[in-house]
Amino acid sequence: MLIDTHVHLNSNKFKDNVDEVIKRALANDVKVMIVVGYDKQTNLKAISLAEQYSFIYATVGFHPTEAKNIKQEDYELLVKQLKHKKVVGVGECGLDFYWDKEFINEQIDVFKKQIEISLELDLPLAIHMRDASEATYNVLSEYAGLKGIMHCYSGSAEMVPLFIDLGLHISLGGPVTFKNGHKPKAVAKIVPLNKLLIETDSPYLSPHPYRGKTNEPFRVKLVAEEIARLRDISYNQIAEITTKNAIKLFNLKELL
Ligand code: NI
Known about the structure:
CATH topology: TIM Barrel
Strand order of the largest sheet: 1-2-3-4-5-6-7-8
Bound molecules: nickel (II) ion
């Protein structure tokens, strides 16, 4: 069994075929999916999918590229949504200096606010970090007792121990399978197995040989296979340990 710990089945890309996409995932041993919200609309959609399917859980939060639009009352709704029994994490949130260099202060404020909410409610963070490794680390390191995921981690192997020391997990996705994915391959080799998670980030980042195509959760298997190959351990071991890690981190009580 596999768990896709970060998938956007709430994206408009899946509006016409989400049931088929879910069926294909289940048929390929992906038995649990964490649907990640990134703005007000997709947060609602993530919750509605989680209400509809027993094996889907949701996280809700505000993506850094949304930061400039977030108002005080939006956090009040977020906290309310985070108390829903199928909502298991805060995010995705974080810093993205690739898509947005204009609203960096707003990004940092919105990220901090969500970190504080996650600590208050004792929920894991789904952290997005793009071209912002140092800034993300600096913000996170102001806090103690963190838990969460560096989602589709694109930082260096050297920084992995720093994020782990903060209490975070490292999740790898499609880029670990790319021929030129030197950085994530180096990361895959050194992440402690008890801190490793896998994901697709569908509809984005389709693994090799589907790079550039709309991604789907069933392809998380390709991610697990590549990590197993890089570490020279069995696919079953990677499947088992990443599933166990996800169940524990997201406190999926029904599966414990
Ligand atoms: Ni994402």
